[in-house]
Design a protein that fits this description.
The protein is an alpha+beta fold. It contains three helices and eleven strands. The strands form three sheets. A four-stranded antiparallel β-sheet has the order 1-2-3-4, with no helix packed on it. The longest helix has 15 residues. It is globular.
Length: 227
């Protein structure tokens, strides 16, 4: 997947391995072996114990992070040069995980797992980076998970798992919106079921809600918020 993405966005960056290079996994698949061989040859799989791993096995997030880190090194020039006109900037450099980045008009959002005061990291928070200022702003700071951020024209939406009164986390995520022009956060939903799979465009927010039926069952419905 990484090889296909790189060749789509940065054609010519990855070198074709010579015919003498067989790769650790050999010809395990007529469909995927060539890409695996190219990934290994170009250093994208460096740091992984390939002889102890199988090409069909699941990749835990640590291995995924290793491959993406190798790709960043390749793009930043420590391995090979970025194609003309491209610049790669590392936006985060810390000791916890980040994920789900989205970008619009020079503003980037993602979730991060910063450490709690007791050393644990159970709560995901939302972060915003502005390319015009180079500043990163943490948009949430609470004791529950904030995930799946989306951004459009300076408006950021995400889903948050608010805790119950006894401190346990709910499974019914709610939808929140942050407006960079005002600095205000608005909670768009407040119910007892799960809201997620959200998108935003031109100030309109759409999402799925796992709404209960009258017979005790639930099904996913579509909701739209406008202002």
């Amino acid at each position: 997947m990484v090889v296909r993405a790189v060749e789509s966005e940065f054609p010519g960056l990855l070198q074709d391995p010579p015919s003498s290079f067989s790769g650790t996994w050999g010809s395990f698949s007529p469909t995927h072996a060539a890409n695996a061989k190219k990934a290994e040859y170009n250093g994208l799989l460096a740091g992984l114990s390939l002889s102890q791993l199988g090409p069909w096995g699941d990749m835990p997030r640590g291995e995924v992070a290793q491959v993406l880190g190798n790709l960043l090194s390749l793009l930043s020039g420590s391995g090979k040069q970025v194609p003309d006109g491209w610049t790669v900037t590392q936006l985060t450099d810390n000791t916890y995980d980040e994920g789900s980045p989205e970008i619009h008009n020079g503003q980037v959002v993602w979730w991060g797992d910063p450490f709690n005061s007791d050393g644990t990291f159970d709560y995901q928070e939302i972060f915003l980076y502005d390319t015009s200022t180079g500043a990163t702003t943490q948009l949430t700071d609470n004791t529950y998970r904030d995930r799946h951020p989306q951004i459009y024209n300076g408006q950021v939406v995400w889903s948050g798992d608010q805790p119950n009164s006894d401190g346990t986390l709910l499974l019914d995520s709610q939808i929140f919106l942050y407006d960079t022009s005002t600095g205000a956060t608005t909670q768009l939903t407040d119910n007892t079921y799960d809201d997620g799979w959200l998108e935003i465009h031109n100030g309109q927010v759409v999402w799925c809600g796992y709404q209960p039926n009258g017979d005790g069952t639930n099904d996913w419905e579509i909701f739209l918020a406008t202002k």
